[in-house]
Write a structure and sequence with these properties.
The chain is built from eleven helices and no strands. It is mainly alpha-helical and 228 residues long.
Length: 228
């Protein structure tokens, strides 16, 4: 096991040192490229990010990025779906676990939806993705629609159905509206806009208190779902 790991690291090192235009069978470089792209896309948006900057950050050539991802959009798409599809799967798994136990409450459904994304706040890379996810909603439709649908379309539909099960009086259009407003709420709250630090008196708000964050968002969203 150690020999294999050493060989893999050596191969990765050679890829960086020689800056090839073709990969040498290591996935570590792809992940490093996506990590750098995630941070750049989150900070500068799709239009403001260049492959040259990402290549420089990972010490590879633009040709290697093109080989792996085809284009800037291909890199953007794979970078977003890497975490987006995992979040989507975790949401579905949590929802199915709730449904297996019986009819879940609105609060339980909301918490299941939010939990996978909240966990990302614990790492700098995860926070970059949260900012990227929030920024996606300001990108042009040709950039955002497909990748958002591929990442979250089916799982979000499952949650619409679950909310209607928990709230039989909720009309179909209202259910879609309230899920959409839930998404907007958590995107803003989780994406480190620092608005709370600016608004609240010093010492009142703790940006690292994730339990308080999810409690506030959950209570707000549950109140919205249960409104007439």
């Amino acid at each position: 096991m150690k020999t294999t790991g050493t060989a893999s690291r050596t191969a990765t090192k050679r890829v960086k040192q020689r800056k090839p235009g073709r990969p040498e069978g290591t996935s570590a470089v792809r992940d490093e490229i996506m990590d750098a792209a995630e941070a750049q896309f989150a900070k500068l948006g799709y239009a403001g990010t260049t492959l040259r900057e990402i290549a420089a950050a990972t010490n590879v050539t633009q040709a290697l990025i093109s080989y792996y991802f085809g284009s800037k959009y291909g890199l953007f798409e794979e970078t977003f779906l890497r975490r987006g599809q995992l979040i989507s799967k975790q949401r579905v798994d949590l929802l199915e676990a709730l449904l297996d136990k019986g009819k879940p409450t609105v609060r339980e459904i909301v918490h299941a939806f939010l939990s996978p994304t909240l966990a990302l706040r614990s790492t700098p890379q995860g926070r970059s993705f949260l900012r990227l996810q929030a920024r996606l909603h300001t990108e042009p439709p040709e950039i955002s629609y497909k990748v958002r649908t591929d990442a979250y379309g089916s799982s979000t539909q499952r949650y619409v159905e679950a909310f209607r099960l928990a709230l039989p009086q909720l009309g179909e259009l209202d259910a879609y509206w309230r899920v959409t407003l839930m998404v907007g709420t958590y995107l803003y709250a989780f994406s480190d806009t620092h608005r709370m630090e600016e608004m609240t008196p010093k010492g009142l708000y703790d940006a690292e208190d994730t339990e308080a964050l999810i409690d506030q968002v959950t209570r707000f969203v549950v109140g919205g779902f249960q409104a007439p």
